[in-house]
Design brief:
The protein is of the alpha/beta class. It contains eight helices and 14 strands. About 40% of the residues are buried. Bound molecules: flavin-adenine dinucleotide.
Length: about 325
Protein backbone atom coordinates (compact mmCIF):
# COMPACT_ATOMS: atom_id res chain seq x y z
CA UNK A 1 0.00 0.00 0.00
CA UNK A 2 1.36 3.40 -0.96
CA UNK A 3 1.55 6.59 1.06
CA UNK A 4 -1.11 9.17 1.80
CA UNK A 5 -0.16 12.60 0.49
CA UNK A 6 -1.56 15.72 2.13
CA UNK A 7 -1.39 19.02 0.25
CA UNK A 8 -0.72 21.46 3.09
CA UNK A 9 -1.01 25.22 2.98
CA UNK A 10 0.90 28.10 4.48
CA UNK A 11 -0.16 31.60 5.51
CA UNK A 12 0.82 34.90 3.94
CA UNK A 13 4.14 35.00 5.83
CA UNK A 14 4.85 31.32 5.33
CA UNK A 15 3.42 30.44 8.72
CA UNK A 16 1.55 27.14 9.15
CA UNK A 17 -2.25 27.10 8.88
CA UNK A 18 -4.65 24.91 10.86
CA UNK A 19 -6.05 22.92 7.93
CA UNK A 20 -2.64 21.29 7.30
CA UNK A 21 -2.52 19.79 10.81
CA UNK A 22 -6.17 18.68 10.52
CA UNK A 23 -5.44 16.90 7.22
CA UNK A 24 -2.32 15.28 8.65
CA UNK A 25 -4.35 14.02 11.64
CA UNK A 26 -6.93 12.53 9.28
CA UNK A 27 -4.22 11.04 7.04
CA UNK A 28 -2.46 9.42 10.00
CA UNK A 29 -5.70 7.72 11.14
CA UNK A 30 -6.51 6.60 7.59
CA UNK A 31 -2.97 5.32 7.10
CA UNK A 32 -3.32 3.11 10.18
CA UNK A 33 -6.75 1.88 9.08
CA UNK A 34 -5.69 0.87 5.57
CA UNK A 35 -2.18 -0.29 6.48
CA UNK A 36 -0.55 2.39 4.35
CA UNK A 37 3.12 3.25 3.92
CA UNK A 38 3.01 6.49 5.89
CA UNK A 39 1.97 10.10 5.57
CA UNK A 40 3.71 12.71 3.43
CA UNK A 41 2.97 16.40 3.08
CA UNK A 42 3.38 18.54 -0.03
CA UNK A 43 3.95 22.27 0.40
CA UNK A 44 4.03 24.73 -2.48
CA UNK A 45 4.93 28.39 -2.03
CA UNK A 46 7.71 30.94 -1.75
CA UNK A 47 8.64 30.64 1.94
CA UNK A 48 7.93 27.28 3.53
CA UNK A 49 10.46 26.65 6.29
CA UNK A 50 8.07 27.17 9.22
CA UNK A 51 5.22 25.34 7.53
CA UNK A 52 7.50 22.36 6.78
CA UNK A 53 8.62 22.05 10.41
CA UNK A 54 5.03 22.39 11.59
CA UNK A 55 3.92 19.65 9.18
CA UNK A 56 6.47 17.25 10.66
CA UNK A 57 5.33 18.15 14.19
CA UNK A 58 1.76 17.47 13.04
CA UNK A 59 2.46 13.96 11.72
CA UNK A 60 4.20 14.07 8.31
CA UNK A 61 7.20 11.76 7.94
CA UNK A 62 8.31 13.44 4.71
CA UNK A 63 7.65 16.95 3.46
CA UNK A 64 7.94 17.60 -0.28
CA UNK A 65 8.74 21.28 -0.51
CA UNK A 66 8.34 23.13 -3.80
CA UNK A 67 9.69 26.60 -3.10
CA UNK A 68 9.91 29.28 -5.76
CA UNK A 69 9.26 33.04 -5.89
CA UNK A 70 6.77 32.46 -8.70
CA UNK A 71 4.71 30.35 -6.29
CA UNK A 72 4.25 33.09 -3.68
CA UNK A 73 0.54 33.42 -4.51
CA UNK A 74 -1.78 30.62 -5.50
CA UNK A 75 -2.39 30.52 -9.24
CA UNK A 76 -3.89 27.47 -10.88
CA UNK A 77 -1.53 27.61 -13.86
CA UNK A 78 1.63 27.94 -11.82
CA UNK A 79 0.71 25.40 -9.11
CA UNK A 80 -0.81 22.60 -11.22
CA UNK A 81 2.35 21.28 -12.92
CA UNK A 82 4.21 21.44 -9.59
CA UNK A 83 1.45 19.53 -7.78
CA UNK A 84 1.38 16.93 -10.58
CA UNK A 85 5.17 16.52 -10.36
CA UNK A 86 4.95 15.89 -6.60
CA UNK A 87 2.24 13.26 -7.05
CA UNK A 88 4.35 11.58 -9.75
CA UNK A 89 7.34 11.52 -7.39
CA UNK A 90 5.41 10.20 -4.36
CA UNK A 91 2.94 7.92 -6.22
CA UNK A 92 0.41 8.08 -3.35
CA UNK A 93 -2.70 5.95 -2.99
CA UNK A 94 -4.70 8.84 -1.54
CA UNK A 95 -4.30 12.61 -1.95
CA UNK A 96 -5.96 14.95 0.57
CA UNK A 97 -6.61 18.66 0.16
CA UNK A 98 -8.47 21.10 2.39
CA UNK A 99 -11.84 22.32 1.12
CA UNK A 100 -10.25 25.78 0.92
CA UNK A 101 -9.97 28.26 -1.93
CA UNK A 102 -6.83 26.41 -3.03
CA UNK A 103 -8.24 22.90 -2.59
CA UNK A 104 -11.56 23.65 -4.29
CA UNK A 105 -9.71 24.83 -7.36
CA UNK A 106 -6.59 22.68 -7.51
CA UNK A 107 -7.91 19.25 -6.41
CA UNK A 108 -10.36 18.71 -9.31
CA UNK A 109 -7.85 19.98 -11.85
CA UNK A 110 -5.13 17.74 -10.46
CA UNK A 111 -7.44 14.72 -10.35
CA UNK A 112 -8.36 15.30 -14.00
CA UNK A 113 -4.73 15.66 -15.00
CA UNK A 114 -3.96 12.37 -13.21
CA UNK A 115 -6.81 10.62 -15.02
CA UNK A 116 -8.59 10.07 -11.70
CA UNK A 117 -11.54 11.67 -9.89
CA UNK A 118 -12.15 13.76 -6.80
CA UNK A 119 -14.62 13.57 -3.90
CA UNK A 120 -15.17 17.10 -2.62
CA UNK A 121 -15.96 18.52 0.81
CA UNK A 122 -15.61 15.45 3.04
CA UNK A 123 -17.10 15.75 6.51
CA UNK A 124 -15.90 12.30 7.57
CA UNK A 125 -13.41 9.78 6.23
CA UNK A 126 -13.41 6.03 6.81
CA UNK A 127 -11.43 3.14 5.36
CA UNK A 128 -13.10 0.37 3.37
CA UNK A 129 -10.36 -1.97 2.16
CA UNK A 130 -8.01 0.23 0.18
CA UNK A 131 -10.72 2.81 -0.57
CA UNK A 132 -11.62 5.92 1.41
CA UNK A 133 -15.30 6.27 2.17
CA UNK A 134 -16.12 9.95 2.03
CA UNK A 135 -19.20 11.28 3.83
CA UNK A 136 -20.41 14.56 2.37
CA UNK A 137 -23.42 16.79 2.66
CA UNK A 138 -25.96 16.96 -0.18
CA UNK A 139 -29.38 18.44 -1.00
CA UNK A 140 -28.44 21.79 0.56
CA UNK A 141 -27.39 20.20 3.84
CA UNK A 142 -30.55 18.09 4.27
CA UNK A 143 -28.93 14.70 3.64
CA UNK A 144 -25.57 12.97 3.71
CA UNK A 145 -24.08 10.72 1.05
CA UNK A 146 -21.16 8.31 1.20
CA UNK A 147 -18.99 8.14 -1.91
CA UNK A 148 -15.73 6.48 -2.92
CA UNK A 149 -13.34 7.28 -5.74
CA UNK A 150 -12.81 4.07 -7.70
CA UNK A 151 -9.83 5.32 -9.73
CA UNK A 152 -6.30 5.97 -8.47
CA UNK A 153 -5.02 8.03 -6.83
CA UNK A 154 -8.10 8.82 -4.78
CA UNK A 155 -8.28 12.61 -4.48
CA UNK A 156 -10.40 14.03 -1.65
CA UNK A 157 -10.98 17.54 -0.31
CA UNK A 158 -11.78 17.76 3.39
CA UNK A 159 -13.81 20.43 5.13
CA UNK A 160 -11.97 22.61 7.64
CA UNK A 161 -12.64 21.79 11.31
CA UNK A 162 -14.11 18.40 10.44
CA UNK A 163 -10.93 16.51 11.45
CA UNK A 164 -8.95 16.58 14.68
CA UNK A 165 -5.22 17.24 14.40
CA UNK A 166 -2.78 15.04 16.31
CA UNK A 167 -1.25 16.63 19.40
CA UNK A 168 1.65 18.77 18.16
CA UNK A 169 4.99 17.04 18.80
CA UNK A 170 7.98 19.26 18.02
CA UNK A 171 10.36 16.41 18.88
CA UNK A 172 9.17 14.41 15.83
CA UNK A 173 11.69 14.15 13.03
CA UNK A 174 11.09 13.85 9.31
CA UNK A 175 12.71 14.41 5.93
CA UNK A 176 12.33 17.57 3.92
CA UNK A 177 12.74 16.87 0.21
CA UNK A 178 13.22 19.77 -2.20
CA UNK A 179 11.08 19.40 -5.29
CA UNK A 180 12.63 20.75 -8.45
CA UNK A 181 9.57 21.31 -10.63
CA UNK A 182 9.16 24.42 -12.75
CA UNK A 183 6.05 26.51 -12.02
CA UNK A 184 3.71 26.82 -14.97
CA UNK A 185 3.29 30.16 -16.72
CA UNK A 186 0.42 32.05 -15.06
CA UNK A 187 -2.17 33.41 -17.49
CA UNK A 188 -3.90 35.50 -14.82
CA UNK A 189 -2.44 38.43 -12.90
CA UNK A 190 -3.44 39.38 -9.35
CA UNK A 191 -4.08 43.14 -9.40
CA UNK A 192 -5.13 43.57 -5.78
CA UNK A 193 -6.26 41.88 -2.61
CA UNK A 194 -8.92 43.03 -0.18
CA UNK A 195 -9.06 41.72 3.34
CA UNK A 196 -12.49 41.35 4.92
CA UNK A 197 -13.03 44.12 7.45
CA UNK A 198 -13.35 42.28 10.75
CA UNK A 199 -12.16 43.24 14.17
CA UNK A 200 -11.77 41.14 17.30
CA UNK A 201 -11.60 37.35 17.40
CA UNK A 202 -11.70 35.51 14.06
CA UNK A 203 -14.82 33.38 13.70
CA UNK A 204 -12.85 30.28 12.69
CA UNK A 205 -10.50 30.54 15.68
CA UNK A 206 -12.97 31.52 18.39
CA UNK A 207 -13.58 29.24 21.35
CA UNK A 208 -16.88 31.05 21.97
CA UNK A 209 -19.21 32.28 19.20
CA UNK A 210 -22.28 34.41 19.85
CA UNK A 211 -24.56 34.34 16.79
CA UNK A 212 -27.72 36.18 15.89
CA UNK A 213 -30.50 35.43 13.44
CA UNK A 214 -33.47 37.06 11.72
CA UNK A 215 -35.47 36.80 14.94
CA UNK A 216 -33.36 39.66 16.35
CA UNK A 217 -35.72 41.84 14.36
CA UNK A 218 -33.29 44.67 13.56
CA UNK A 219 -29.59 45.16 12.76
CA UNK A 220 -29.09 47.32 15.89
CA UNK A 221 -29.49 44.19 18.03
CA UNK A 222 -26.10 42.98 16.80
CA UNK A 223 -24.52 45.79 18.88
CA UNK A 224 -25.82 43.97 22.00
CA UNK A 225 -24.29 40.72 20.75
CA UNK A 226 -20.98 42.46 20.08
CA UNK A 227 -20.93 43.84 23.64
CA UNK A 228 -21.57 40.41 25.13
CA UNK A 229 -19.00 38.85 22.81
CA UNK A 230 -16.38 41.43 23.84
CA UNK A 231 -16.94 40.54 27.53
CA UNK A 232 -16.48 36.86 26.73
CA UNK A 233 -13.60 37.19 24.25
CA UNK A 234 -15.96 35.68 21.70
CA UNK A 235 -16.55 36.18 17.98
CA UNK A 236 -19.91 37.29 16.59
CA UNK A 237 -21.60 35.18 13.93
CA UNK A 238 -24.87 35.46 12.04
CA UNK A 239 -27.35 33.34 10.16
CA UNK A 240 -27.63 33.71 6.42
CA UNK A 241 -31.05 35.30 6.79
CA UNK A 242 -29.52 38.05 8.95
CA UNK A 243 -26.62 38.53 6.51
CA UNK A 244 -28.92 38.56 3.47
CA UNK A 245 -30.92 41.33 5.14
CA UNK A 246 -27.68 43.34 5.39
CA UNK A 247 -27.76 43.25 9.19
CA UNK A 248 -24.28 41.77 9.53
CA UNK A 249 -21.31 41.27 7.16
CA UNK A 250 -21.43 38.09 5.02
CA UNK A 251 -17.89 37.29 6.25
CA UNK A 252 -19.53 36.44 9.61
CA UNK A 253 -22.16 34.06 8.20
CA UNK A 254 -22.11 30.64 9.85
CA UNK A 255 -23.32 27.63 7.89
CA UNK A 256 -23.19 25.54 4.79
CA UNK A 257 -22.45 28.52 2.56
CA UNK A 258 -20.64 30.47 5.27
CA UNK A 259 -17.95 29.66 7.80
CA UNK A 260 -17.77 26.34 9.63
CA UNK A 261 -17.10 26.80 13.33
CA UNK A 262 -16.57 24.27 16.10
CA UNK A 263 -16.09 26.33 19.27
CA UNK A 264 -16.37 25.15 22.85
CA UNK A 265 -19.53 27.24 23.18
CA UNK A 266 -21.97 28.42 20.49
CA UNK A 267 -24.72 30.78 21.60
CA UNK A 268 -27.54 30.92 19.02
CA UNK A 269 -29.85 33.88 19.58
CA UNK A 270 -33.12 34.03 17.62
CA UNK A 271 -31.87 31.50 15.09
CA UNK A 272 -34.26 28.76 13.96
CA UNK A 273 -31.58 26.09 13.48
CA UNK A 274 -32.14 25.29 9.81
CA UNK A 275 -30.06 22.34 8.60
CA UNK A 276 -27.92 24.69 6.50
CA UNK A 277 -27.08 26.74 9.59
CA UNK A 278 -26.40 23.66 11.69
CA UNK A 279 -24.02 22.39 8.97
CA UNK A 280 -21.78 25.26 10.09
CA UNK A 281 -22.07 24.99 13.87
CA UNK A 282 -23.30 21.45 14.61
CA UNK A 283 -19.76 20.43 15.58
CA UNK A 284 -19.69 22.90 18.49
CA UNK A 285 -18.99 21.24 21.84
CA UNK A 286 -21.90 23.04 23.55
CA UNK A 287 -24.78 24.95 22.03
CA UNK A 288 -26.98 27.34 23.99
CA UNK A 289 -30.10 28.60 22.21
CA UNK A 290 -32.50 31.43 22.96
CA UNK A 291 -35.67 31.21 20.90
CA UNK A 292 -39.28 32.15 21.61
CA UNK A 293 -40.60 29.15 19.66
CA UNK A 294 -40.41 25.97 21.79
CA UNK A 295 -40.56 23.89 18.59
CA UNK A 296 -37.61 25.63 16.93
CA UNK A 297 -35.23 23.14 15.33
CA UNK A 298 -32.25 24.60 17.21
CA UNK A 299 -33.52 23.00 20.44
CA UNK A 300 -32.86 19.54 18.94
CA UNK A 301 -29.16 20.34 18.95
CA UNK A 302 -28.59 22.49 22.00
CA UNK A 303 -27.38 21.51 25.42
CA UNK A 304 -29.20 24.36 27.14
CA UNK A 305 -32.22 26.09 25.69
CA UNK A 306 -34.17 29.14 26.83
CA UNK A 307 -37.67 29.53 25.43
CA UNK A 308 -38.43 33.24 25.58
CA UNK A 309 -38.13 36.55 23.84
CA UNK A 310 -34.40 37.23 23.54
CA UNK A 311 -35.01 40.87 24.54
CA UNK A 312 -36.04 39.69 28.00
CA UNK A 313 -33.23 37.14 28.30
CA UNK A 314 -30.24 39.10 27.02
CA UNK A 315 -29.94 41.75 29.79
CA UNK A 316 -30.02 39.04 32.47
CA UNK A 317 -27.61 36.85 30.51
CA UNK A 318 -25.25 39.79 30.10
CA UNK A 319 -25.25 40.45 33.86
CA UNK A 320 -24.59 36.79 34.65
CA UNK A 321 -21.80 36.56 32.10
CA UNK A 322 -20.15 39.72 33.42
CA UNK A 323 -20.23 38.22 36.90
CA UNK A 324 -18.75 34.97 35.61
CA UNK A 325 -15.94 36.81 33.84
CA UNK A 326 -15.27 38.92 36.96
CA UNK A 327 -15.07 35.75 39.10
CA UNK A 328 -12.63 34.03 36.71
C1 LIG B 1 -28.35 26.14 -0.38
C2 LIG B 1 -28.64 26.87 0.90
C3 LIG B 1 -27.56 27.26 1.68
C4 LIG B 1 -27.80 27.94 2.89
N1 LIG B 1 -26.72 28.28 3.65
C5 LIG B 1 -26.96 28.83 4.86
C6 LIG B 1 -25.87 29.14 5.74
O1 LIG B 1 -24.70 28.98 5.41
N2 LIG B 1 -26.17 29.66 6.95
C7 LIG B 1 -27.45 29.91 7.37
O2 LIG B 1 -27.64 30.39 8.50
N3 LIG B 1 -28.49 29.64 6.56
C8 LIG B 1 -28.28 29.12 5.32
N4 LIG B 1 -29.33 28.89 4.51
C9 LIG B 1 -30.65 29.42 4.90
C10 LIG B 1 -31.38 28.55 5.89
O3 LIG B 1 -32.15 27.59 5.21
C11 LIG B 1 -32.35 29.42 6.76
O4 LIG B 1 -33.22 30.11 5.90
C12 LIG B 1 -31.64 30.42 7.64
O5 LIG B 1 -30.63 29.79 8.40
C13 LIG B 1 -32.67 31.03 8.60
O6 LIG B 1 -32.05 32.01 9.38
P1 LIG B 1 -32.66 32.39 10.80
O7 LIG B 1 -32.74 31.17 11.65
O8 LIG B 1 -31.90 33.55 11.29
O9 LIG B 1 -34.11 32.95 10.41
P2 LIG B 1 -35.55 32.35 10.63
O10 LIG B 1 -35.70 31.03 9.97
O11 LIG B 1 -36.49 33.42 10.22
O12 LIG B 1 -35.66 32.08 12.18
C14 LIG B 1 -35.74 33.12 13.13
C15 LIG B 1 -35.92 32.46 14.48
O13 LIG B 1 -35.95 33.47 15.47
C16 LIG B 1 -36.95 33.15 16.42
N5 LIG B 1 -37.40 34.43 17.01
C17 LIG B 1 -38.12 35.41 16.41
N6 LIG B 1 -38.27 36.45 17.26
C18 LIG B 1 -37.64 36.11 18.40
C19 LIG B 1 -37.44 36.77 19.65
N7 LIG B 1 -37.91 38.00 19.87
N8 LIG B 1 -36.77 36.11 20.62
C20 LIG B 1 -36.29 34.86 20.42
N9 LIG B 1 -36.45 34.20 19.26
C21 LIG B 1 -37.10 34.82 18.26
C22 LIG B 1 -38.04 32.46 15.64
O14 LIG B 1 -38.81 31.63 16.50
C23 LIG B 1 -37.21 31.67 14.63
O15 LIG B 1 -36.91 30.39 15.12
C24 LIG B 1 -29.12 28.23 3.29
C25 LIG B 1 -30.19 27.83 2.49
C26 LIG B 1 -29.95 27.18 1.32
C27 LIG B 1 -31.12 26.73 0.47
Amino acid sequence: MAQILVFGESGADGDPVAITAELLGAATRLNEAIGGDGVACALIGAELEMAAQAAIAAGASTVYRAQHDALAQYQTDSYLPVAAAIVEQVAPAIVLFGQTSLGRDLAPRLATRLGSAVAMDALALAAAGDRVQVTRSCYGGNARQVVTVESDPQVVTVRAKSQDPLPEDTSRTGDIVAVDAAPGAARARVVGKETADTSGVRLEDATIVVSGGRGLGAPEAFADLERIAADLGAAVGASRAACDLGWYPPSQQVGLTGTIVSPELYVAIAISGASQHMAGCGGSKNIIAINKDPDANIFRYCRFGIVDDYKKVLPQLELELKQLVADR
